[in-house]
């Protein structure tokens, strides 16, 4: 619209790009504001520019210290916070007031960098000013509001000048007349020619093609039978004429195979009223990681660019003739667009066939991502906005992302997508068409995290200890941004190990991950400082010793650290993991694969609980319980009053008198019940936090026989099963021995073990969210586990992924196969 700041920015940047073709990126100064970051990212995506947001989610204390150390001379030009006085602090530099800012942070929790609107600054000089500096000669202080807490005032410059810089660096630069500025205006009649962001004019056809003729597509769908919220479907393509080994399959073959698989998936999902826009997580497996770029190009044509699913892509030892395999987890109410009622559509569109890859069955065009609402300044959860601000209507209720209605929040059907495309110091930006995390119904599915240094998007070091720590830190940054933690609220963590790592490197990776699994990661600001030192070569100790020392401090939790934290003031809200009454580390499964993206040695892919969503559910339940108790108390009092009014004065009024007269004592029972309810209400009111902690802190762990126990006759055993947050989520981990795959009734045996474990937590097969299974391809032959699946009922089917080796934290001994089940009751 006319005058819209986003459109004005888009017009300006389009003119800059047309005038200066060398411009390829845009830098913004967002620190905690998703509102600003999302808008800049959206404009950059439209113009084909790279968004740089190096300050986003950086520790504000480190950021302020870095500004001062880099000789940035900025003065306060507006103050609006408790402890900042206009006549005292306006005109002072950040270097002069940094102690004051730290003190106010300790006292009131104010933002050190003014991200909550505490103050505004004007830069007078910095290293980027090559020719001159601004000198403020005179100014006046204007009080614009007295305020109930603090005065709000700003600095009004009345006299200033530009002072030329004289140095060896600027001596060779032609000195222009600094009294005359150079300003370029966008011509009024200029209009940009924006690149098209729509789907290709001729998308891959969904009809029979040479691709389908060349490949046989095998689909496996454990839940495409209309039951439950979740759907999981897997597919792979097998060459008809020949079965080439993975090393002989070309990149072109991988492209054709993935196209065939995704076309088949779109067809199958359309029959169930679903589309790839309902996908929340994708496991993509390739036979050769060198084909990553080629399959990415095909992948991006099928999956939506706005709010895409999260993804993990690894190389697997797939059977001969199978270039790629895909496993997609979908949710029926996860679509983030507008879903019109079929009755409101023309007859020709009420049941339309899919017209493009990834299209939704309702034929609704995907709208561009609307920016999220502004984050609350300085709020505790105002920094966790997500990359979607639109609402979706489905089955008569609004399904929102942020700002969702109460009905959608209570229904638990809201989906949130964290899709950060800016290059920053926070975590790696998305390399491909996927998002960092998808949260749905209290479970957050985090994309596979590899050890990329966010600032440079490059692998920081070949050292396994550093790679493991950085991969886990990247996953933790994403988890915190979604309101969770990979240590305190983890359902499971899949750790992919590359076969390129030697035996010592693999053991080092396992040790570091087990340490993180037990004690957690250091605070975000310490990790940021540590990796900054590693990147600049300022770590004096060997990498293994440096990582061990950092994790050792976290494990010890000594008093010196606590005192240091106290002196440093309050941490930034967007860097703090949510507090949980108990530590709930999930299962840890190590999976060895031939190769990982960027030739990394490790990739970490966690699935975590959305703690804030679960806390809101528990708070709502406690509030409802309190309201019910209050309502019951009120009704009982009214009944008592009615009984007193209707009571015959000639009858005895005491309880003993009523009993002596042979009368019923219902009113006295009501009084006793009312008193009890009032006590409960008092308890809810004064001890709600305690009850909340009890409900949220429930961790039920059931340990059964270990698969590595010598002489065990069981072929399928449940290594462990856990019920977290009062059964809000359940995780099962089953180990399978090699002899199990030789049994005819192998799959029914596995199904029975899963049912037994679920029954211990009062759950059934219909509560399953996802089943992930790996088998050691060096011990088990694929056909041995394919045949029994065909006879299984549709309510239980497992898609198996071949790997080069695996083990778990519950049983570090190697197993022939591992099956992980995630279920949910809420």
Shape: globular
Structural class, from secondary structure content?
A: alpha+beta
Low-pLDDT parts are 196-203, 205-212, 338-359, 361-412, 558-567, 643-712, 783-791
Summarize the biggest pleated sheet.
7 strands, mixed
Instruction: Determine the fraction of residues in helical runs and give it as a percent range.
Output: 25-40%
Count helical runs.
21
- Widest sheet, order of strands: 14-15-16-21-19-20-27
Radius of gyration: 31 Å
Strand content: 15-25%
The average pLDDT score comes to: 75
Terminal CA distance: 42 Å
Number of strands: 28
Explain the overall architecture.
There is one protein chain. This protein is an alpha+beta fold and 826 residues long. Strand 12 (392-394) and strand 13 form a beta hairpin. Helix 8 (251-271) packs parallel to helix 9.
Indicate the topology.
Layout: H1 5-19, E1 25-27, H2 34-47, E2 50-52, H3 60-69, E3 73-79, H4 86-89, H5 94-108, E4 119-125, E5 132-145, E6 152-164, H6 168-171, H7 210-214, E7 215-220, E8 230-239, H8 251-271, E9 279-286, H9 292-302, E10 310-315, E11 324-331, H10 347-350, E12 392-394, E13 397-399, H11 406-411, E14 415-418, E15 437-440, E16 443-446, E17 452-453, E18 458-459, H12 464-481, E19 490-498, H13 503-519, H14 524-535, H15 543-556, H16 559-568, E20 587-593, E21 602-609, H17 611-646, H18 655-660, H19 666-696, E22 699-703, E23 716-724, E24 729-736, H20 746-759, E25 768-776, H21 783-786, E26 800-803, E27 805-808, E28 817-824
Parallel strand pairs: 1-2, 9-10, 19-20, 25-26
Antiparallel strand pairs: 3-4, 3-6, 5-6, 7-8, 8-11, 9-11, 12-13, 14-15, 15-16, 16-21, 17-18, 19-21, 20-27, 22-23, 23-24, 24-28, 25-28
């Amino acid at each position: 619209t006319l005058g819209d700041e986003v459109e004005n920015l888009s017009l300006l940047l389009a003119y800059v790009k047309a005038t200066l073709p060398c411009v390829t990126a845009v830098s913004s100064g967002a620190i905690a504001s998703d509102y600003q970051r999302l808008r800049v990212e959206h404009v950059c995506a439209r113009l084909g520019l790279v968004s740089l947001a190096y300050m986003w989610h950086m520790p504000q204390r480190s950021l302020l210290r870095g500004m001062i150390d880099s000789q940035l001379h900025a003065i306060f030009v507006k103050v609006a916070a408790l402890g900042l006085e206009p006549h005292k602090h306006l005109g002072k530099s950040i270097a002069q007031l940094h102690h004051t800012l730290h003190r106010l942070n300790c006292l009131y929790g104010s933002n050190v960098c003014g991200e909550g609107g505490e103050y505004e600054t004007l830069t007078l000089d910095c290293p980027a000013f090559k020719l001159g500096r601004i000198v403020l000669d005179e100014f006046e202080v204007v009080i614009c509001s007295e305020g109930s807490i603090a005065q709000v005032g700003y600095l009004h410059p009345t006299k200033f000048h530009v002072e030329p810089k004289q140095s060896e660096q600027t001596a060779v630069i032609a000195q222009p007349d600094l009294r005359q500025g150079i300003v370029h205006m966008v011509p009024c009649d200029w209009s940009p020619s924006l690149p098209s962001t729509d789907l290709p004019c001729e998308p891959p056809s969904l009809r029979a093609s040479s691709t389908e003729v060349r490949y046989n597509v095998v689909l496996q769908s454990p839940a495409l039978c209309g039951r439950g919220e979740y759907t999981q479907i897997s597919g792979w393509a097998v060459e008809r004429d020949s079965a080439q080994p993975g090393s002989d399959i070309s990149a072109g073959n991988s492209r054709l195979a993935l196209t065939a698989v995704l076309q088949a998936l779109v067809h199958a999902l359309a029959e169930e009223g679903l589309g790839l826009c309902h996908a929340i997580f994708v496991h993509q497996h390739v036979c050769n990681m060198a084909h990553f770029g080629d399959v990415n190009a095909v992948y991006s044509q099928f999956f939506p660019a706005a709010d895409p699913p999260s993804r993990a892509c690894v190389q697997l030892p797939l059977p001969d003739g199978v270039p790629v395999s895909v496993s997609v987890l979908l949710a029926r109410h996860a679509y983030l667009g507008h879903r019109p009622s079929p009755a409101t559509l023309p007859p020709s569109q009420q049941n339309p066939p899919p017209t493009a890859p990834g299209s939704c069955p309702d034929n609704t065009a995907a709208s561009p991502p609307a920016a999220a609402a502004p984050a609350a300044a300085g709020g505790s959860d105002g920094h966790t906005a997500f990359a979607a601000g639109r609402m979706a209507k489905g089955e008569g209720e609004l399904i929102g992302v942020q700002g969702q209605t109460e009905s959608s929040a209570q229904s638990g059907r809201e989906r949130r997508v964290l899709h950060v495309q800016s290059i920053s110091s926070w975590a790696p930006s998305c390399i491909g068409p996927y998002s960092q995390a998808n949260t749905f119904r209290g479970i957050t599915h985090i994309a596979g995290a590899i050890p990329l240094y966010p600032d440079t998007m490059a692998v920081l070091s070949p050292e396994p200890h550093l790679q493991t720590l950085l991969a886990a830190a990247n996953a933790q940054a994403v988890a915190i941004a979604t309101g969770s933690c990979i240590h305190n609220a983890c359902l499971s963590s899949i750790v992919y190990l590359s076969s390129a790592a030697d035996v010592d490197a693999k053991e080092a990776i396992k040790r570091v991950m087990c340490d993180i699994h037990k004690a957690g990661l250091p605070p975000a600001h310490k990790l940021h400082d540590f990796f900054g030192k590693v990147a600049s070569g300022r770590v004096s100790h060997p990498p293994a010793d440096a990582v061990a020392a950092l994790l050792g401090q976290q494990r010890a939790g000594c008093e010196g650290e606590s005192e240091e934290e106290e002196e440093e003031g309050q941490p930034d809200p967007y860097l703090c993991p949510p507090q949980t009454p108990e530590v709930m580390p999930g299962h840890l499964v190590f999976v060895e694969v031939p190769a990982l993206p960027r030739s990394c040695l490790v990739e970490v892919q966690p699935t975590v609980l959305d703690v804030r969503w679960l806390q809101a559910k528990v708070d709502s339940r406690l509030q409802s319980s309190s309201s019910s108790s209050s309502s019951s108390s009120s009704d009982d009092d009214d009944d008592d009053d009615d009984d007193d009014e209707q009571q015959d004065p000639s009858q005895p009024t005491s309880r003993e008198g009523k009993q002596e007269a042979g009368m019923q004592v219902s009113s006295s029972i009501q009084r006793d019940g009312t008193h009890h309810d009032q006590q409960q209400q008092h308890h809810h009111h004064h001890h709600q936090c305690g009850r909340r902690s009890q409900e949220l802190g429930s961790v039920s762990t059931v340990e059964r026989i270990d698969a590595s126990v010598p002489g065990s006759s069981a072929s399928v055993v449940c290594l462990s099963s856990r019920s977290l947050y009062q059964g809000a989520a359940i995780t099962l981990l089953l180990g399978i021995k090699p002899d199990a795959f030789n049994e005819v009734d192998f799959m029914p045996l596995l199904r029975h073990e899963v049912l037994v474990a679920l029954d211990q937590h009062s759950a059934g097969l219909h509560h399953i969210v996802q089943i992930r299974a790996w088998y050691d391809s060096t011990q088990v032959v694929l056909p041995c586990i394919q045949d029994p699946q065909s006879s299984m009922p549709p309510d239980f089917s497992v898609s198996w992924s071949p790997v080069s080796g695996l083990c778990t934290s519950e049983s570090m001994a190697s197993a022939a196969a591992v099956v992980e089940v995630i279920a949910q009751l809420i």
